[in-house]
Amino acid sequence: MNWDLPRRSGIPSSDGGAETEDRSHLSSTSYDRRNLLSELEEVDARIEYVRATDPSGFRDFTVAYDVASMAVIRVRAILEVEEFAYVAGAVDEADVKGLTAVRNFVAHRGYVHANADMLWSAVTEYLPRVVEALRRAVSRSDGE
């Protein structure tokens, strides 16, 4: 089983050395867009990892469950950070509330209380639509 997920440039390597990235040629907006697209690619990789898992084995204390939890946490975080505010409107308020509820469930109440079926559905059915909406918003903002 391959557990490797794509890594963004600038993320410290596992051996403790930091990769560096020259960003001097990028505008702040250009870098923010690249950063967001990279983040969405990482979420896509997490979604695909979960989808490749047998649903009957999807439960607490498995790698796929933890990967699914992180996918939800990361997407909700995208909607909270100022650098990505220009795409926040791409996800309607009801979807943000639902995503927040799932994130809070896995992040604050502990994995023991999370419902595996609910998390599976959120990550394999709902989250891809949210990611695609965010990706479309980035594309629209590129044309401005």
Note the overall shape: globular
Low-confidence stretches: 8-28
The domain tally reads: 1
Computed Rg:
16 Å
Largest sheet: none
Span from first to last CA? Answer: 43 Å
Strand fraction equals under 5%
Quick one: how many beta strands?
Answer: 0
Order of helices and strands: HHHH
Structure annotation, total helices:
4
Percent of residues in helical segments?
Answer: 55-70%
Word description of this protein:
The radius of gyration is 16 Å and the shape is globular. The protein has about 140 residues and is mostly helical. Helix 1 (about 30-50) runs antiparallel to helix 2 (about 65-80), helix 1 (about 30-50) packs antiparallel against helix 4 and helix 2 (about 65-80) packs parallel to helix 4 (about 115-140). The chain has four helices and no strands. It has one domain (about 30-140). It is about 60% helix and about 0% strand.
